[in-house]
Amino acid sequence: DAGVAARLTRTVLGALEAEEVRRLVVVSAAPVGPEPEGDGFLDRTMRGIVSAVLKDIYADLREMEAELARSATDWTAVRPPRLQDKPLTGTYRRVVGGFPRRGRFLARADVAHAMLDAIGDRATVKQGVGVAY
């Protein structure tokens, strides 16, 4: 549901502050971040179509990320593309502050892997991290 991510994030940020917990890693979506440098016509077109169809969801995720940016939390937003139900590979591309060129898919298991990996990686703090095969 559009709106749930931002509302939930505000609640979680309040709970983290109350408990003096600083680290938070969330899942967002690739279209929320910057476009990959050098992407071709097909990737730009598909991203535009998907963004138009899911505009309310992506607006909610942008607001979620804005809530994070306004907070004192050491947050990371992991931004995958289209999710797949496939097994963990542990092998994917990652771009801090951007998105991998021609990144079209990623298994949910690899998204979880990327999120766990980000927990201890100081380079990802207060950053969006694009992940894809």
Helix and strand arrangement:
Elements: H1 4-18, E1 23-27, H2 41-53, H3 55-70, E2 74-79, E3 82-84, E4 93-96, E5 105-107, H4 108-119, E6 127-132
Parallel strand pairs: 1-2, 2-6, 3-5
Antiparallel strand pairs: 4-6
Helix pairs in contact: 1-3
Structure report:
This protein is an alpha/beta fold and 133 residues long. It has one domain: NAD(P)-binding Rossmann-like Domain (Rossmann fold). Helix content is 42%, strand content 20%. It contains four helices and six strands, in the order H-E-H-H-E-E-E-E-H-E. A four-stranded mixed sheet has the order 1-2-6-4, with helices on both faces. It has a two-stranded parallel ribbon with strand order 3-5.
Low-pLDDT segments: none
CATH superfamily: NAD(P)-binding Rossmann-like Domain
Residues in β-strands, percent: 15-25%
Q: What is the overall pLDDT average?
A: 93
Number of helices: 4
**Structural class by sheet pairing and helices:** alpha/beta
The order of strands across the largest sheet is 1-2-6-4
For the termini, the CA-CA separation is: 27 Å
Overall CATH architecture: 3-Layer(aba) Sandwich
Largest sheet: 4 strands, mixed
